[in-house]
Amino acid sequence: MTMEGVYKLYFGESNIPTPGFIRDAASRAMNEGFTYYTSNAGLASTREALAGYYAAKHGVELDAESEIVVTTSGVQALNVAIRCTLDPGDEALVLTPAWPNGTSIVQMCNATPVQMAQPLERTAAEAVRYTINFDALEAAVTPRTRLLLYTSPSNPLGWVASETEQLRLLEFARRHKLWLLADEVYERLWYDGPALGAVVPSILRYATREDSVIVAQSFSKSYCMTGWRVGWLVARADLAGRARELNEFIISHAPSFGQRAAETALRDGEAFIVRMLEDYRSNRDYCLSVLRELPGVTVPEPSGAFYLFPRIEGLADSFGFCKRLLLETKVGLAPGVAFGAGGEGNVRLCYASERSILEPAMERVARFIRQGGWA
Ligand SMILES: Cc1ncc(COP(=O)(O)O)c(C=O)c1O
User: Fold this and answer.
1) Looking at the whole model, is its pTM more than 0.90?
2) Hey, where are the domains in the chain?
3) CATH classification code of 7-17+271-371
4) Per-state percent for the chain, helix, strand, coil, to nearest 5
5) Which of 109, 121, 139, 152 could connect to 161 by a Cys-Cys bridge, CB 3.0–4.6 Å?
6) What is the average pLDDT score of the chain?
């Protein structure tokens, strides 16, 4: 973090600033007096805007009053959701490799995360797609299992759950009476949809409002608003009520002007998202083409999010690899081991930066891998 001149591909964010129309909305909101406390569930207007978004994008009707809670980021949505579902001693199934915070929050509840690695389907010639091992999930359920957490689109895999996989997850959760927590913060970053800018179908499309389903969401990734700390969760009304109450003791609510700006993002952000995705897709293809030229590197084409998670043959210490890469070439990647079961042997790179950063960084990564000596 203190080294100068590093190409930072380890972060999960773009170097593109928040669009001007969203920044202007925040300034306007401050000048209009949105500088006071709001309800712990967030401004009524923000929840109404989110309900409108789900109706328009997913065809899902939500009650803004009882089923939506605005949170201070996606990670806070995960935090309150997990705290509301787990007691000490409980177990939570977590699909991995995954952003590590879910697992850590489970541990902070004095509960046990049970990491379930997502297998990679391969043909003889190539790595095709990550899947879910449902047999392993069945075998992992115990009387203390309360929750299943998955992320689609996935950080770091770029995997997007298919309709069949979502229906099976829902059926699995219903049968075992588990909470199903879907981290959908990357739902706008999808490259295989009917059109660029199409939204990944939310688990909410398949669930009823009686189902024990929670969605964790964020403005961070869709609108380049990582530093703003605004997100939301959608859940069955009883859980949303508890999340609203728990919020009081954690952070109470998201900043009021940030919530107003988030409404503008939802209303006016579509063209920005499409432009951003055009760049991300071209960056993804560029980085894939560099990696696929390298000996011993396999990487499936990700369908969503903004990460590549190449597997490097012979790599047994991804942390050591990333440390040497950083010290010797000033390129920062995230070690696969940080993402839990199934992650070692890989590294993660975020391709959301501009080409002026990606191109020199990828050249250095390629040279480092080719020259060997890091295994
Ligand atoms: C899978 C996943 N969920 C949630 C988040 C949290 O995003 P934020 O707290 O910025 O809303 C991230 C951020 O990297 C993420 O990768």
Assistant:
1) yes
2) 7-17+271-371, 20-268
3) 3.90.1150.10
4) 40, 15, 40
5) 152
6) 96
